[in-house]
Amino acid sequence: MSLKGAAAVVGIAELAPQRYTGDASILDLLSQVGAEAIADAGFKHADIDGLVVHPIGGLPGFVPATVAEYLGIKPTFAELVDLGGATGAGMVWRAAAAIQAGMCTTCLCLTGTRRRGRPQNRKQQNTERPPPRSIAPTRDRSPAAEFDSPYGMVGANVGYAMIATRYTHEYGLQDTQRAKVAVDQRKNANANPKAFFHDQQLTIDDVLSSEVICQPLHMLEIVMPAAGAAALIVTAADRVPDAKQKPAWILGAGESVTHSSFAQAPNLDATGIGIASRAAFNMADVKPGDMGLASLYDCYTIMVLLTLEEAGFVPRGEAGAFVESHDLTWAGDFPLNTHGGQLSFGQAGMAGGMSHVTEAARQIQGRCGERQVPGLELAYAHGNGGIIAEQTGLVFGASR
Predict the structure, then answer these.
(1) Exposure string (b/e) for 296-317, b if CB count within 10 Å is 16 or more?
(2) What is the DSSP string of 75-118?
(3) What gap in Å lies between CA 204 and CA 225, rounded to an integer?
(4) What is the dihedral of CA 372, 307, 158, 344, to 10 degrees?
(5) H/E run at residue 11
C-alpha cells in the first residue's frame, strides 16, 4: 500500500517551548494548540473527524475520548500512538492511512507536554509522607529491568554516550565535528523567534567548554527538557482546495521498532533508522539526495550524525567530515533542522519530536519567514524514540 499523495498537512500550530507551564493542564495546552491548528487550516471543529493523540499522564485510559470531549469534536477515527520521540511522525502517516481507508477525511494530530514550576522555597514543598500503598507494586519483569538497570544503564544520557563512544572508536569522530551540529542549529534558532535559544549565540568553544555530562557528551550537545505543544491538520486530497494554507503533501512514510531495552539493540550503528527511511523514500519514489531539507531528530548531536548515514544522506563513517565541511543552516548548502532542532528550539516532550515534522511541513508550505529555504520541493522528517529503538520517516512534497 502506498500513501503517496493521499493526504496533506494543511494546518500547523505550535506553542513556543518554555521551561515550565505553571498551572495549565495538558488538556489546556492540547486544546489551545488544536484550536489554533484548525483555524490555521481554515477549518472548523465540526470538520475534524479524526484524532490522533499520545498517552497522557494522569489519564490511565480513554485518552482519545477524553481529548475529543474536551475539544468538542466527534471523530470517526481515533488512535493512540506511543513511539516516544517518533510519535509525532508516526501520527502523520497513521492519519494519512486512516484517510485513505475512508475512516475519516480530516485528522487532528496532537502532541504536548506540561512541566509544572519548581517550588520557590522549601516552605512550599510538601514534606508529608505519601500514604502507604494498599496494593504491592507489580514487579518489573522487562528486559531493561534485568539487563540494563542493574548495570547502571539508567536514562538516555548513558545510552547515547555509549553510541557516541562506539562511533568514535569505529570512525575517528572528532568532538569538534559533533559540536558543529549544535552550533549550526543554534544559528537556525537565531532566525526562529519561537526557539528557546533564539537570542543566544553559540560557538564550538562554548560547546566543548560546557560540562561533560556523560563522556564524551557535553551539556550543550544534549537537549534541555522543556514544555509545550504542537498540532497538525492532515486532510484528504479532495479537501485540500478547501484549506486556507498550501498543502505539504505526504509522499512517503516508513517505520521500524527494533528493541526497547538498550541491551537488546541489534547494533549501535545499524539501527531501524535505515529501515524506516528507505521505506519512506521508496514509497515517495525519491532518493535522499533529492531532499532540500533534512529535519532529523536531535536529542543528542551524535543522533544527527548517525541518522545522516543510516538514512542514506552520507556514506558510512563520513558524517563527521560532512557536517564539518558543509553549512547546515537554512541558508547553507545542506539545510538541516532549520527551526533550531531540539537542541536549540527546545525539546518540549512529545511536542519536541513533532517539531521536526511541523518544521518540514511549514518549510514546504513556504511559511518560515527569515529562515525559509528558497524553492523547497522535498523535505525529509525523522523521529526517534527511546534509545535508537523506534524510528519513523516521512517525505513531504510541495506537489502531489
Answers:
(1) bbbbbbbbbbbbbbbbbbbeee
(2) -SEEEE---GGGHHHHHHHHHHHHHHTTS-SEEEEEEEE--PPP
(3) 22
(4) 0
(5) strand 7-14
Q: What are phi and psi of 85, to 5 degrees?
A: -70, -10
Q: Assess contact for 293 and 335: CB atoms under 8 A.
A: yes
List alpha helices for the chain, DSSP H.
Answer: 26-41, 63-71, 87-100, 143, 156-171, 175-189, 204-209, 272-284, 301-310, 319-325, 341-344, 350-365
Give the span between the Cα atoms of 30 and 51, in whole angstroms: 12
Write down all domains in the chain, each with its CATH number in brackets.
7-116+223-397 (3.40.47.10)
With a pLDDT cut of 70, the percent of the chain lying above it is: 94
The cell for 269 is 550503528
88 neighbors 356 (Cβ within 8 angstroms) = yes
- Whether 337 and 359 have beta carbons less than 8 Å apart is answered as yes
Q: Is the pLDDT of residue 122 over 50?
A: no
At which residue does the C-alpha cell 547502571 appear?
A: 152
Can you tell me the distance from the alpha carbon of 339 to that of 198, in angstroms, rounded to the nearest whole number? 10
Contact 109, 92 (CB under 8 A): yes
pLDDT value of position 113? 94
> Which residue has 494530530 as its cell numbers?
109
Within 8 A by CB and 6+ apart from 34, the residues are 13, 71, 108, 110, 231
* Under 8 Å between Cβ of 314 and 322: yes
pTM: 0.93
- What's the confidence (pLDDT) of residue 123? 47
Are 142 and 260 a contacting pair, CB within 8 Å?
yes
Q: How many CB atoms lie within 10 A of CB 128?
A: 6
| Number of residues that make up the chain | 400
How far, in Å, CA of 151 to CA of 112, rounded? 32
